[in-house]
Structure to design on (174 residues):
């Protein structure tokens, strides 16, 4: 993998994103004017309306984008730490590269929540850097276990909160 080529691709994607935000209102107007009739046209006009609304709130859009990048970077770095603790010996830079791409691939509707697809993607994306697939897959599965466990704790707390609320209400009315 040529680092200069990756740098150029990253720069092009960033420039396209900045241009898309800068010219969001004209793009929305073009979409609205060129939208066909029927259901597809309604959807395209709704997208244009949403883009116009976002263009009027650029600071919120920028804030959400920066927050999203920070959160996903933290997730990638946590996965890198998990992989290093498991002995996979991968670098944080490789995780910052592979994690977002694997998350995109995991959105394909071919598995339960991307499980398995994300791991295969990570192993394939990290292989050119010389990292062992088994360690990368193990780190990803540990991360997924943490997510499922946190979800189970949250669901349990929600159920406990629902059953405790009626008891508290009865005590206050009694």
């Amino acid at each position: 993998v040529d680092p200069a080529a990756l740098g150029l691709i990253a720069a092009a994607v960033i420039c396209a994103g900045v241009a898309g935000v800068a010219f969001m209102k004209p793009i929305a107007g073009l979409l609205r004017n060129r939208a066909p009739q029927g259901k597809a046209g309604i959807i395209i006009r709704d997208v244009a309306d949403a883009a116009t609304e976002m263009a009027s709130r650029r600071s919120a859009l920028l804030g959400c984008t920066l927050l999203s990048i920070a959160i996903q970077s933290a997730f990638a770095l946590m996965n890198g730490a998990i992989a290093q603790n498991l002995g996979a010996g991968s670098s944080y830079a490789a995780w910052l590269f592979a994690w977002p791409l694997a998350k995109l691939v995991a959105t394909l509707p071919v598995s339960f929540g991307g499980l398995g697809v994300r791991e295969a993607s990570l192993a394939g994306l990290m292989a050119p850097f010389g990292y062992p697939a088994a360690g990368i897959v193990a780190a990803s599965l540990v991360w997924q276990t943490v997510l499922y466990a946190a979800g189970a704790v949250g669901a349990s707390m929600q159920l406990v909160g629902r059953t405790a609320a009626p008891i508290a209400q009865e005590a206050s009315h009694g």
User: Anything to note?
Assistant: The mean pLDDT is 86. The helical segments are 3-22, 24-34, 39-55, 58-85, 92-106, 117-126, 133-173. Residues 150 and 156 are 10 Å apart (CA to CA). The two ends are 71 Å apart (CA to CA).
